[in-house]
Amino acid sequence: MEKVDYNKAIINFEKEASTRTTFSYDPVSNKVYDVSKIEESKELYNAYGNGKDPLYIISTTNNITDKFNNDTKNAYLDLQNKEKTPFLGQWTSPVSGKKFKDVSYPDGYIDEIEAIRLKTLFNQESVLRVYSNGEWELI
């Protein structure tokens, strides 16, 4: 798996953050995904889904700030070491209204039970589930 330096990823992320409010950034492909845009949601699924089951975006940080920090850096590096593709993202929770800058990763090879287990493990409010047709939901 290709690895992108954390600081370089942050610089590229911040360029996108100047024009977007809610999105996930994939440093490896240098692509931005906003699932509220159906075409970007489909692109995300096509890049990381398995073609039949939902794709889950699992956040590993619970960073309720407007800045990335040592925790997000450590999470990013940990995902790389585990051969996972780390994403950088920012979003506002429709449930709590809290704003997050988080590190997450896509996984198209787990089921809902495992996604919920990981949500609990990483102390997350929700997990993003993306379907092949571009529809999505928070679970």
Could you walk me through the main structural features you see in this protein, from its secondary elements to its overall organization?
- The structure is a single chain.
- The protein is α+β, with helices and mostly antiparallel strands.
- It is built from 4 helices and 7 strands.
- It has a 7-stranded antiparallel beta sheet with strand order 2-1-4-5-3-6-7, sandwiched between helices.
- The chain has one domain (6-130).
- The longest helix has 12 residues, at 6-17.
- 32% of the residues lie in helices and 24% in strands.
- It has helices spanning 6-17, 38-48, 70-81, 112-121, and strands spanning 23-26, 31-33, 55-59, 87-92, 99-107, 128-130, 136-138.
Using only CA atoms, what is the Rg?
14 Å
Element-by-element helix/strand order: HEEHEHEEHEE
Q: What is the count of structural domains?
A: 1
- What structural class should be given to the helix and strand makeup? alpha+beta
Instruction: Report how far the terminal alpha carbons are from each other.
Output: 28 Å
Mean pLDDT score, rounded? 94
Name the features.
139 residues, alpha+beta, 7-stranded antiparallel sheet
Short synopsis of the structure:
The chain has 139 residues and is an alpha+beta fold.
Element layout with pairings:
Blueprint: H1 6-17, E1 23-26, E2 31-33, H2 38-48, E3 55-59, H3 70-81, E4 87-92, E5 99-107, H4 112-121, E6 128-130, E7 136-138
Antiparallel strand pairs: 1-2, 1-4, 3-5, 3-6, 4-5, 6-7
